[in-house]
Amino acid sequence: MGAAILGIIQLVNLGDTAYELGRATTEQTSNYIYRIIAIKGMQALTIFITCIVFSVTAFQAKKGAIFTKENENLLSLFGIIISIIGIFTLALVRIYKNDMLPESSGIIMTLLGFSFVFFAVVLKIGRKIKEEQDLTI
Predict the structure, then answer these.
(1) CB-count burial class (<10 Å; 0-12, 13-18, 19+) for 6
(2) In the predicted structure, residue 73 carries a pLDDT above the cut 80
(3) Which residue spans within 1-137 are E strands per DSSP?
(4) Dihedral (Cα; 115, 117, 123, 129), 10-degree rounding
(5) Statement: residue 125 has pLDDT above 90
(6) Does the pLDDT value for residue 34 go beyond 80?
């Protein structure tokens, strides 16, 4: 759900960006296009990674294998990757100050990555509890 909302926000922002680039002069647009492509590309990569993680986790849940080491590692790895992308995006937005590049997107991506890492820790604790429970039976 969150990934779908972010995707819709990206489409709206991309439309605004296209409008602004269309009315800008050639000198202003030359360097600006590359900045926009880099930042929007990182945001699109984050949305793609989030959809992959949710799909794999949902598939594992359907099989009944939620508390596994693989799910824990998957969430940790992608959480760290998304956090790094979010921090990098936030840094780029702050370096290239512009009204069309909101800082909130980098912050949201960083928080999304940290939440993946948090859920990986929860899965790790759940896996340990499940292992202890299996040993007592």
Answers:
(1) buried
(2) yes
(3) none
(4) -110
(5) yes
(6) no
Domain segments of the chain as ranges: 2-136
- For the chain, what is the radius of gyration of the CA atoms? 19
Identify the weakest region by mean pLDDT among 53-67, 95-109, 123-137. 95-109
Q: Which amino acid is at 119?
A: F
Rounded to two decimals, what is the model's pTM? 0.72
**The tokens of 111 are what?**
């928080």
Closest-CA residue to 92 (of 108, 79, 78, 105) = 105
Q: What average pLDDT does range 40-68 have in this prediction? A: 82
110, with CB counted inside 10 A (0-12, 13-18, 19+), is buried
Distance CA(76)–CA(66), nearest Å, equals 14
pLDDT of 105 = 76
> Rounded CA gap, 24 and 100, in Å?
13
CB proximity list for 20: less than 8 A, separation 6 or greater: 100
